[in-house]
Structure formats: structure tokens, C-alpha cells
Amino acid sequence: MPFIHIDNVTRRYDQGVLALDRVGLEIERGEWLAIMGPSGSGKTTLLNLLGGLDRADEGRIVVDGLDLAQTPRPDLIRYRRESVGLVFQQFHLLPYLNALENVMLAQYLHSMADEGEAAQALEHVGLGHRLRHLPSQMSGGEKQRVCIARALINGPKLILADEPTGSLDAENERAVLDLFTKMHADGQTIVMVTHDLVVGRRASRQIQLEHGRVAGEFLTHQQDEEAIDEVLEYLWLKSEGDPAAHEICAIGARLATSQLLDRMRARGILHGGGAPEFSETGRRRAESLIRRHRLAETLFSETFQMHESVVEEEACFFEHILSPVMTDSICGFLNHPPACPHGKPIPRGECCSGRTAQTR
């Protein structure tokens, strides 16, 4: 039996607003699930139901054998205290308690305060030097790490996180996501709500909610390949000396985690150790991506005369799907252009051998 079983769950709010509509889902122990979807799609409602903060109008939610719909209120409170760790976008730290005391507060609710254990939890999230600091003396990322320590302190079976990086800058986002990655590697079950595709890619599986229903479910192997492509493009553009030229640079920088870079090294896409550096295999793959992207930009801009904002979006899509034959056909149709509309060089392909590129 799965660790979490969600069967035909419906939740309605006042005036008949349908937040969840017959949702069915299974989550395995040790899985990291990202719940994606637009605002109002039911993501937070589903998280609240899993945490015992709300009850479904119809259907069943069973967590580790416990049927939440049939559980009396006192037992539901115990379930939240002992089995669930909650991490929110807003930190909900008491401003007059220091980091250590905020973590110990969760222990008090569990009736077993242990200062040494709380200090160890903060050490685990990299805040051993901030035990006595108040929330007002900490950055957003540090506050969120206190929240993660608080969520973990009672050894929960399930971590529920609602947009945990939504209010953080890129550096703190990465630090927090690295903690979630470590928790997942240690076998923790995580259900995370996020609207951010980059954050969602960290999970082992994603579901897409739309209008209260599961609209799609995705294993992230393909997304891992796309993330590798984004990082390769980022490294290529960075090597050209103008990393601000494309939005892809910002995305690639966020995706270039130590875990992904290690996987790329293990697959021979990057050289081992030190700063990221293309292997010959990685350089060919990056060159092919850049070529497809810039040929698509040229086609959409100069032949179809599409608006610049649409050109970039479509080029980012087509770079992942163009076959070598189609890429060479586009190159030939465009008369083997030397550069894209932004003036960046287009890597030459086999179809360009012996040909002189025409100035456009």
C-alpha cells in the first residue's frame, strides 16, 4: 500500500467554490512530489488536507494507514504534532524568541523539549552560529532554515512545504533547496507546492493541478535532460562574455546545482572537478543547442517577422525538438547565416561545409 493514498477527494468552500474536484493520487514513502499549477488550482488546499489542517467534503486521504477523514479531532492534532513537518512561504517565527527557542517551541507542543537536540537541528541546517539570534537579525534564507529545523525537530514522517522559496533571492533559494535535496536523499517524504518550474525540477515527480483536478503527472528524467541543456547553454553564453544576453542565463545559473553538475561530470558532459568545463562531448552538445536556438531565432525573426518576445520563447522551445535533418534544412533555407539577429555567431554544421555564409 502506498504511504499516502488520496481517493476521489473533493473540497468545496463557501458559495460552492470547488477547490478540489475528485482528485486521486498515490505518493510513495521517501518520494519528493512537487504540486504545480496556476494560482487557484487547488495546490494549497490539497496540502492543507494532507496536513490535517482541513477536511475533505468527499473522498478519503490515508497517510501511513491513518484515514484522516475518520480520525477524531484530538488524534488529528496528535498526527500534526508527531507525523507532519510544515514549512510555509511566510516564516511564522515568533519575533521575541531566538532561533533556538523557535525550534524548541515545536518540542514544547510535543511535550519533550530538548535544547541540545534543537541546537543540533539548527547545526544541521547550517545555523549553529545563529542559535541566539532573533528573527529580526536574520536574512530571509536563514529564517526559512530555522523553519526547516523546526519542521524536522520531532522526526516527522512527512514534510509539507508551501512555496518555501517564494520570498527568497536566488542564493538563499539554492541553499534552502539543497536542504530539501539532502532530506530527500536521507529518505524523507516531501510534498511541496510551487509555481516555479526550476524549483519543481528538484523533485522526483511532479503533478499539475488545474481547476482542482490533476491535469498531468511527470517523472523528471526528461526535465533533468532539459536542465542539463539549460546549464550547457548558460556555460556557453557565459563563455561568450555576455551572460545577461539571454534570460536562459538566469535560469541556467539557478539549475547549475552541485548535484546536477556532478551528474554531468559522471556522464562525461563536463570535465571532473573544479569549475564547470566542457568535455568534448559536452561542447558538441552545447554547440548543437546554440545552433538550433539561433537558427530558430533567425527563422522566426527574419522570415516570419515575429515579435522579439515571441521569437525568444519559440526558439527556447524549438531548440529541444529540432532534429539534425530539420536543423540542416532550416540552415540551408536561410542560406547558412553566420549570426543570429542579435549578432551572435551561429555554430557551423556539416551542411555548411565548403559554403561561404551569406551576410544577412
Cα shape? globular
Query: Mean of the pLDDT scores?
Result: 87
Order of helical and strand elements: EEEHEEHEHHHEHEHEEHHHHHH
> Could you name the ranges where pLDDT drops below 50 across 5 or more consecutive residues?
none
Strand content: 15-25%
CATH architecture of the largest domain: 3-Layer(aba) Sandwich
What is the number of helical segments per DSSP (H or I, 4+ residues)?
Answer: 13
Question: How many strands?
Answer: 10
CATH top level label of the largest domain = Alpha Beta
**What is the CATH homology-level superfamily of the largest domain?**
P-loop containing nucleotide triphosphate hydrolases
Write out the strand line-up for the largest beta sheet, numbering strands in chain order: 6-7-8-3-9-10
Q: How far from one another are the termini?
A: 63 Å
Could you name the CATH topology of the largest domain?
Answer: Rossmann fold
From the alpha carbons, calculate the radius of gyration and give it in angstroms.
24 Å
Helix content: 40-55%
Instruction: State the secondary-structure class.
Output: alpha/beta
Tally of separate domains: 2
Main β sheet profile: 6 strands, mixed
Describe the structure concisely.
With 360 residues, the protein is α/β, with parallel strands linked by helices.
